[in-house]
Amino acid sequence: MMQAPTRHNWTLDETLSWFAKPMNDLIFEAQMALRAHFNPNDIQVSTLLSIKTGGCPEDCNYCPQSSKFDTGLKAEKLMDTQTVIAEATRAKQAGASRFCMGAAWRSPKERDMPKVIEMITQVKALGLETCATFGMIDANQATQLKEAGLDYYNHNLDTSEEFYGEIITTRTYQDRLDTLQHVRNAGMNVCCGGIVGMGEAVHDRAAMLVTLANMPTHPESVPINMLVQVEGTPLKGLAALDPLDFVRTIAVARIMMPASYVRLSAGRETMDDALQALCFAAGANSIFYGEKLLTTANPAQHDDMKLFERLGLKVASAASRMSDAA
Ligand code: SAM
Ligand code: DTB
Ligand code: SF4
C-alpha cells in the first residue's frame, strides 16, 4: 500500500478543526491513517510494573505517588531484581510483548543506575521488549540505558505548554523536552503522550498533539491517558470528562502520527467495553495489560482477552507495523 509521508508541520488551527469534525468523519480518517501503517486488527500489549513506588518529590497534581499529597500510598524502596524478573516472567506468560518499569523519581540517582541496568538486561534476556519511565534523564544516563538494552523510554508531556503550569510546578515543559531529546539522541524509541481530563480545554489537547506530531521523528509510542482521579490528589473531584472527547483525542493522535502506536492507557478500569471498542475504532492499537497500572487498578487480563476475542483483535508481536515488516 502507498503510504503518504508522515507530516511534521501541523498547525493548531487545522488540529482544532479535526477535533471539531463530526465523529463519523473523524473515525473514518483515523481508520484510513491506521490502515496505511498497521494491520488494523492487531493490538500491542505492554505490562507495567512500579519498581519504586511513592515518596516522589515532584508535585504533579494528578499523581498518587507525589509526597506532597496525602493519598495513603505507602512509599517503598527500589524493588529487588529477582522480584522484577518474576513479574516480567508472569507478564510474558500472560501474553505481554513489552515490559515497562516505572519509578517515582524526579530523576534516577547515580546509585540507582547499576540496579536498573541489571533489571533491564535481565528483562530483555527473557525475550521481552523493555521500556522504562524513571523521570528526567541526562544524555549520559540515556546512553547507559540504551547500552543496557532499553528499547523504549516513556516520558510524557502530559498536556499543552500553556496549561502545564497549572498541573506541575517542580519541573518545566522544557525539562521534559530536553529528556525526550536525550532519549532520541541515544537511539532509543520514544514513548510520549499525555493525560486528558485534567480540566484542560480542547485547545490544550490540540496543542499537546501539535508538539508531539511536529517533532522531527514522531514518538514511536503515544500513550493517551484518561485521568484516574485519586483521593488526596488536587485533581480529585474534577467534573468527569465527556468520554467522547477522550475518543476524539485518540482519533486526532492517530491522524497526526499515523505510523505510531497510539495507546489507550490509564482510565480503562472505568470504561465499559463499548467505549474501549470505540477507542480502538478511533485508532488506538495498544493498551496497558495487567491488573495494575503503577499503583491503580486496570482491567483483569482475562477480561481484556475476552474483549479482544469479541472484537476480533489479535495480540501482536513487537514488529507488526507494516513499515517495520517491509
Ligand atoms: N516519575 C516518572 C515521571 O513522571 O516521568 C515516571 C512515572 S509517572 C507515574 C508516568 C506517567 O504516568 C505520568 O507522566 C502521567 O502521564 C501518568 N500518570 C500518573 N498518574 C496518573 C493518573 N492519576 N491518571 C492518569 N495518568 C497518570
Ligand atoms: C503512561 O503514559 N501511563 C502509565 C505509564 N505511562 C507509565 C502510567 C499510568 C499511571 C496511572 C496511575 C497509577 O497507576 O499510579
Ligand atoms: Fe513523581 Fe512521576 Fe508522579 Fe510526577 S508523575 S509525582 S514525577 S511519580
Notes on the protein architecture:
The structure is a single chain. The protein has helices at residues 12-19, 23-37, 81-93, 113-125, 139-148, 161-164, 173-185, 202-213, 243-256, 273-281, 301-311, 322-325, and strands spanning 42-52, 98-103, 129-133, 152-154, 189-191, 194-196, 221-226, 261-264, 286-288, 314-315. α5 (139-148) links the parallel β3 and β4. Strands 1, 2, 3, 4, 5, 6, 7, 8, 9 and 10 form a 10-stranded parallel sheet that branches. The longest helix has 15 residues, at 23-37. The protein has 326 residues and is α/β, with parallel strands linked by helices. The protein is built from 12 helices and 10 strands. The chain binds S-adenosylmethionine, 6-(5-methyl-2-OXO-imidazolidin-4-yl)-hexanoic acid and iron/sulfur cluster.
